[in-house]
């Protein structure tokens, strides 16, 4: 469930001291709150849910945890490619054999934070996400941790005034992209991953990276590569060859795993080799002061 968390203090996702995961969602039936725990000895997942969307969240929990993750052919691919850096992939596939690509089945809910993360550092995007959910999200149903909020419906996103986008720290380009996408939210929810990719990229302000980030989470697409990511090409290149690379080089390295390229990048994020950090980190901008 970790890919669905948007930074520390995410109002829609919290990890409690008892290791329970709390998550809110605007389901087709309305707002809902989900609490998930794992009983490791019994190998059992225990879940509770509250709100109008409670039943939907419980019914779709297996998909969220990856029950429908299509892994056919992946082990064969991993076994066939053992030379060089690809031996690391085989090692990670064994070490993280339980990792699955889950799906939320909520496209617009995955799209908004992806747009906020466009071309900015994570801290900047997550700050905007927190501000907007705290301002426009409704309180989470049930005994959720204090401060949890439910993602607002598309009609609310369409009506957020320009000054509140500014207060959140999101400039006009990202704000317009989200407001425009909200008009097509219902159509996006009904699309398959391939259809959603076409529809998303037809909308102003949404490109390959944003579409991939959305489909990874909403559809559990194991092949959706985040082309255009600031860090990913370096991670893939350094893990597999010991050298940094660009998007074209990353796609060439991932080509043998077509059909599972996002799965490979997820494994590398969990246990790959990152290039040495040199120089200062990119600073978070603050549009609120402009």
From TrEMBL:
UniProt keyword list: DNA damage, DNA repair
UniProt signal peptide: none
Keyword Cell membrane (UniProt): no
InterPro entries: Alkylbase_DNA_Glycosylase/TA, DNA_glycosylase
Keyword Nuclease assigned: no
Segments crossing the lipid bilayer: none
Name assigned to this protein: 3-methyladenine DNA glycosylase
Species this chain originates from: Sphaerisporangium flaviroseum
Lineage: Bacteria, Bacillati, Actinomycetota, Actinomycetes, Streptosporangiales
